[in-house]
Structures are given as structure tokens and as C-alpha cells.
């Protein structure tokens, strides 16, 4: 049973609203996936904060028109699903990459980031972006390293002085005896 005109309009508005807020998008061909595999994919998408939707290509073209993902329009051919990363730029790419390892029937077609269209070969590059927490922890480690090095160096001066005085005392005691 096909969708009514109102349902199509609602779907286009929903996808357009998500596309306006999304950081990255991945289109993937799902031909060959079973219903159980699609359910698993949708569940993983929910867990990772990825908006995943199977949309007819004509509706997808209308939904992304006027967004930074408009560059993907020409790649909308065949049975595609759209995955939008909403919080973490690499989340959708990681989802498609990881799931396609389990189910090779899912193949990435295009990746869009910052208004630029990239081929599926760039999926791994986008998927390797750190999550927000990973990026913050790396930043904090980088910021903490010089302070820690300075503290270690400053603490070493009195320690070296104490060891030198102890060595001088031992030398004097050894020569006196």
C-alpha cells in the first residue's frame, strides 16, 4: 500500500527538519537485507543517536533540497537509506561501516559533510573521527601535559638538592671514619 500525499509531505518535512540539524549524512544501499537485519540496523542507529530512514528517492531529493546535503541529490538512485549524524559527526559513518561488516548487503554510496559530497571510500575517514568525549579527553591530556612536566621539573629541584646533600654527608662521614 502506497503512502498518501499527506504522509509523503509529513515524511519530507521530518527528513528536512533532521537534515537541517544534522552534522553529516551517509546514503547506503540496503538491497538484500532481510527484515530482521533492518530491525537490528534501526536498533543500533537508535542506540548511537543516528537518524535512519528509508525514503523514496524523489521524496529524499525534496527533503534535502535547501540543506547542506543537497549535494547528495544526484546519488539518490536505487533502494537507499539515509543516515544522519545529529550529535557526533562520525556516528552515521561508524554505524554503516560496522553494520556492513556484519551484513555485506549494506553498501555505502555517498557521504556528505560540510556541504561537500564524498564517495564511499571516505566512509572510513569520517568513521574514524573521535566522538565528543574522546576529543575532549585528548584535548585535556594535551593541555595537562605541559603543566605536569613543569610540576615534575619543579619538584625535581629540591629532590636533587636533598640527594646531593646526602651524598656530601656520606662522603664526609666516610672520610672521617
From TrEMBL:
<dbReference type="InterPro" id="IPR047865">
    <property type="entry name" value="Ribosomal_uL10_bac_type"/>
</dbReference>
<comment type="similarity">
    <text>Belongs to the universal ribosomal protein uL10 family.</text>
</comment>
<keyword id="KW-0699">rRNA-binding</keyword>
<keyword id="KW-0694">RNA-binding</keyword>
<dbReference type="InterPro" id="IPR001790">
    <property type="entry name" value="Ribosomal_uL10"/>
</dbReference>
<dbReference type="GO" id="GO:0005840">
    <property type="term" value="C:ribosome"/>
</dbReference>
<dbReference type="InterPro" id="IPR043141">
    <property type="entry name" value="Ribosomal_uL10-like_sf"/>
</dbReference>
<keyword id="KW-0689">Ribosomal protein</keyword>
<protein>
    <recommendedName>
        <fullName>Large ribosomal subunit protein uL10</fullName>
    </recommendedName>
</protein>
<dbReference type="Pfam" id="PF00466">
    <property type="entry name" value="Ribosomal_L10"/>
</dbReference>
<dbReference type="InterPro" id="IPR002363">
    <property type="entry name" value="Ribosomal_uL10_CS_bac"/>
</dbReference>
<comment type="function">
    <text>Forms part of the ribosomal stalk, playing a central role in the interaction of the ribosome with GTP-bound translation factors.</text>
</comment>
<comment type="subunit">
    <text>Part of the ribosomal stalk of the 50S ribosomal subunit. The N-terminus interacts with L11 and the large rRNA to form the base of the stalk. The C-terminus forms an elongated spine to which L12 dimers bind in a sequential fashion forming a multimeric L10(L12)X complex.</text>
</comment>
<dbReference type="InterPro" id="IPR022973">
    <property type="entry name" value="Ribosomal_uL10_bac"/>
</dbReference>
<keyword id="KW-0687">Ribonucleoprotein</keyword>
